[in-house]
């Protein structure tokens, strides 16, 4: 039998409110995302930890420690905040470099374990009109810091914004909806991420006078070396 600490783990980092004086707006939908993710992942057998409004220093410290803790087969990290290309922001308004976070997991403890990162953050200020964009990783060399057996799913393509309203983000709410639907939790990870991309790209369109008609296209980066089924564990254990 597995030791009690050897379970699939999920760490949710959500920044909804920023420190006084930081010129970044509140993200009221972040709390909705966090609650729904916590509920669904717990039902799927994950041990879930939620960290609300940490500073950049606290985020670095958190993932440095998490990368050395035992995990059964899969470690899932969700980072939700304002962002730019290559970083998200802590509650103190300071950037958290994603490449640095990824490198923490290139260690013996995480060897041969599946690492999945979901990044809900803008990657620039452009808005997607529904045209093809260039998401080649060769433009972003810091992505080569991603360890083997790791996948990263970004809410949007490089240079573009990601949408959120008071009910949550398009990306994470769609991810949760897929896991709730019959059959999707049993999918191999790359197939699940493909369906997530398709649903966001083809069913979402922003509304309103300022942003009406804009789209969002998630971006998937993988260094997986095998098929993985990170959300089918609970059913297989039964």
From TrEMBL:
Source taxon at top rank: Eukaryota
InterPro entries named in the record: Caspase-like_dom_sf, Caspase-related_regulators, Pept_C14_caspase, Pept_C14_p10, Pept_C14_p20, Pept_C14A
GO molecular function: cysteine-type endopeptidase activity
Any GO BP annotation: proteolysis
Caspase family p10 domain sequence ranges: 168-232
Occurrences of domain Caspase family p20 (ranges): 10-126
One Pfam family of this chain: Peptidase_C14
Family: Belongs to the peptidase C14A family.
Listed PANTHER family: CASPASE 14, APOPTOSIS-RELATED CYSTEINE PEPTIDASE, MUCOSA ASSOCIATED LYMPHOID TISSUE LYMPHOMA TRANSLOCATION PROTEIN 1/PARACASPASE
Protein name, as recorded: Caspase 3, apoptosis-related cysteine peptidase-like
Originating organism: Poecilia formosa (Amazon molly)
């Amino acid at each position: 039998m597995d030791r009690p600490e050897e379970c699939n783990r999920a760490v949710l980092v959500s920044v909804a409110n920023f420190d006084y004086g930081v010129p970044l707006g509140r993200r009221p939908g972040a709390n909705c995302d966090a609650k729904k993710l916590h509920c669904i992942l717990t039902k799927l057998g994950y041990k879930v930890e939620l960290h609300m409004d940490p500073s950049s220093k606290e985020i670095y410290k958190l993932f440095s420690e998490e990368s050395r803790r035992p995990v059964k087969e899969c470690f899932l990290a969700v980072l939700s905040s304002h962002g730019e290309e290559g970083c998200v922001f802590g509650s103190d308004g300071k950037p958290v470099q994603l490449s640095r976070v990824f490198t923490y997991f290139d260690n013996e403890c995480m060897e041969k374990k599946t690492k999945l990162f979901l990044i809900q953050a803008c990657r620039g200020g452009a808005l997607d009109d529904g045209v093809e964009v260039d998401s080649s990783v060769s433009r972003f060399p810091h992505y080569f810091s991603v360890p083997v057996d790791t996948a990263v799913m970004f809410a949007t393509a490089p240079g573009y914004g990601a949408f959120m309203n008071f009910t949550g983000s398009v990306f994470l709410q769609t991810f949760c909806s897929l896991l709730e639907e019959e059959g999707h939790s049993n999918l191999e990870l790359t197939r699940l991420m493909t369906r997530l991309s398709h649903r966001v790209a083809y069913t979402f369109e922003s509304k309103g006078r300022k942003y009406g008609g804009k789209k969002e296209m998630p971006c998937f980066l993988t260094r997986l070396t095998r098929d993985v089924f990170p959300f089918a564990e609970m059913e297989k254990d039964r």
